[in-house]
Amino acid sequence: MKLSALSQALLGFTASVHASTIQYSTVTGYFLQDEASTDPSTFDYTAVNFGLINRTYPADKELKHHQSLTQWERFYHQVQKLNDDSPCNVEYKVLFLGRHGNGWHNSAETYYGTPAWNCYWAELNGNSTVTWFDAALTPAGEDQALVAHNFWQRLINEQHIHTPDNYIISPLIRTLQTANLTFNGLDLPHGAAPFAPVIKELFREGISIHTCDHRHNKTYIHSLFPSWRIEPGFTEQDELWNGVTAETTAAQKARSTRALDEVFFTEEYSKKNSYVSVTSHSGEIASILSVLGHRRFSLNTGAVIPVLVRAEHVKGENTATSSLPWTASAHCTSPPVTSVSACVCASSASPVTTPLVATGI
Ligand SMILES: *[C@@H]1O[C@H](CO)[C@@H](O)[C@H](O)[C@H]1NC(C)=O
Ligand SMILES: *[C@@H]1O[C@H](CO)[C@@H](O)[C@H](O)[C@H]1NC(C)=O
Ligand SMILES: *[C@@H]1O[C@H](CO)[C@@H](O)[C@H](O)[C@H]1NC(C)=O
Ligand SMILES: *[C@@H]1O[C@H](CO)[C@@H](O)[C@H](O)[C@H]1NC(C)=O
Question: Keyword annotations for this protein (predicted)?
Answer without folding.
Answer: Signal
